[in-house]
Design goal:
Helices cover 61% and strands 2% of the residues. The chain is mainly alpha-helical. The chain has a two-stranded antiparallel sheet. A hairpin with a 2-residue loop joins strand 1 and strand 2. Helix 2 packs across helix 3, helix 9 runs antiparallel to helix 10 and helix 14 packs antiparallel against helix 15. The two termini are 30 Å apart. About 14% of the residues have low confidence.
Length: 456
């Protein structure tokens, strides 16, 4: 019987319907001394106009939520002297109340007074000043200035969203879409995404594309999905570039056009979008839509891998292990496989296991190889399941057991038919040497393993 352990040398892409989840940084809590203000124009009482583009520039990640922070220069009150802001706040101007609260809470130009800052922001919020309502929602959501309270966060987001606050609308759409601190509700996710998208907000337009593409709460509609992706793309929404590329690359709702798909991937990749960089690497690696160029593939894999994208780390590891586009270097391959495997990538776990099994760049370590194969198998990776069967066949760091070996071969073959020739050969050879009782025991064991590996 052959004892050939299999490794997977494929480049993997995931077509991601990108739903950003981000967070916020509320600045320093250091105490500052107020400075004497210069004369300034009077503060206007009407609410200033928020700019979606300004928030887009200040998108951050916090506790898995998308948070859009306004640019300090986009609000006239930001430059107003403190006495003028105080006077207008005392006169009941909600915009001034919000600005005063923000300065007091952050210690910007004044001695920091958190409670007084909160009081003024709450005053503005009670006057239905949407920016203050949104800010309170963020505070309760992230635990900034307040103890985290999902119900209060939802309450203030709803008030701001109902007042037309585009960023509150977008946050609500994400919360309902992902079931974050609320019961998942695709209808409400669609409703709020539509509200924000109708105001021209690119991320929500992209999300609408995702909703229609995947059929989340509505029948799938690829044409409508593309329409929304293109609207978002016109606003330079990089995830929309990526989504358009994916649909072109597989011919989803549109004729396949690998060249055009690659162009869209490039647009997103050049702006630092890691998934697009990885996908662009795959286009070059396979010669899909461009001339095959392994060096260029490595360049784009590396860009995405250095951003922490697990699939790109895996792909870069493959290139170093095989010496494609770079000098063959097992040590570097191990490093990238390890980074990817630590993020739970089953393919990286599989290949890393094989390197430890065969002593490629490391001392042979059957125990570590088995552990990695097991981690991969628990995610349903069929080649890892097969390799565990091989280890049971020869008793490498695990008990020698034809029953367990046959059970793993059977299960691997039922999951992944592309390896059927190799697996069937070992399966049939081993089965022919076993008794009918052993074969029945293997079948029973395979059913147990199916549950263990989550393949039912």
């Amino acid at each position: 019987m052959r004892n050939t352990f299999l490794t997977l040398k494929v480049f993997v892409a995931v077509l991601i319907a990108a739903l950003f989840m981000c967070g916020c940084d509320n600045g320093s809590a250091t105490t500052q001394t107020a400075t004497k203000p210069e004369p300034a124009a009077p503060v206007h009482s009407q609410k200033t106009e928020e700019s979606p583009q300004a928030y887009q520039r200040n998108k951050k990640t916090y506790n898995g939520q998308t948070i859009y922070l306004f640019d300090i220069n986009d609000f006239p009150l930001r430059g107003a002297p403190l006495p003028t802001v105080k006077e207008s706040a005392l006169a009941g101007d909600p915009a001034a109340q919000y600005e005063l609260g923000r300065r007091l809470g952050s210690g910007e130009g004044v001695t920091r007074d958190l409670q007084e800052g909160i009081k003024w922001i709450q005053k503005a919020a009670r006057q239905n000043y949407a920016e203050a309502q949104f800010e309170l929602g963020m505070m309760y959501s992230t635990g900034t200035w307040f103890k985290q309270d999902p119900n209060q966060a939802l309450n203030w987001f709803l008030k701001a969203a109902e007042g037309g606050h585009v960023f509150a609308q977008d946050n609500l759409s994400q919360m309902y879409d992902l079931g974050m601190e609320v019961t998942r509700d695709y209808a409400k996710a669609l409703y709020w995404a539509q509200k924000a998208a109708d105001q021209g907000f690119g991320p929500s337009q992209n999300r609408l594309g995702v909703i229609h593409r995947q059929g989340l709460g509505v029948p799938p509609d690829k044409t409508k999905a593309l329409e929304w992706f293109h609207r978002a793309a016109k606003q330079n929404e990089v995830e929309a570039f990526f989504n358009i590329g994916n649909m072109l690359n597989i011919g989803e709702g549109i004729p396949i056009n690998h060249v055009e798909a690659t162009r869209w991937y490039l647009k997103a990749a050049e702006q630092g979008f890691a998934e697009a960089q990885n996908r662009l690497g795959m286009q070059y690696g396979h010669g899909t839509g461009v001339n095959k160029d392994s060096v260029e593939a490595v360049k784009w894999y590396r860009k995405a891998a250095e951003q922490g994208l697990s699939l790109a780390q895996y792909n870069l590891g493959v290139m170093y292990e095989d010496g494609e586009g770079v000098r063959q270097d097992y040590a570097t391959a191990l490093q990238w496989y390890t980074k990817s495997a630590q993020q739970g990538n089953p393919l990286a776990q599989l290949n890393l296991g094989n390197m430890h099994l065969h002593g490629k760049g490391v001392i042979t370590d059957y125990k570590k190889a088995y552990r990695l194969f097991k981690e991969s198998a628990l995610q349903g990776e069929p080649i890892a399941i097969y390799n565990i069967g091989q280890m049971h066949t020869i008793g490498a760091e695990v008990p020698q057991s034809n029953v367990l070996a046959l059970a793993h071969y059977h299960l691997a073959n039922s999951v992944e038919n592309t390896l059927s020739e190799a697996i069937n050969e070992d399966y049939n050879t081993l089965k022919s040497s076993m008794s009918s009782n052993e074969i029945r025991a293997a079948e029973q064991e395979a059913r147990k393993l199916m549950r263990e590996y989550g393949l039912e």
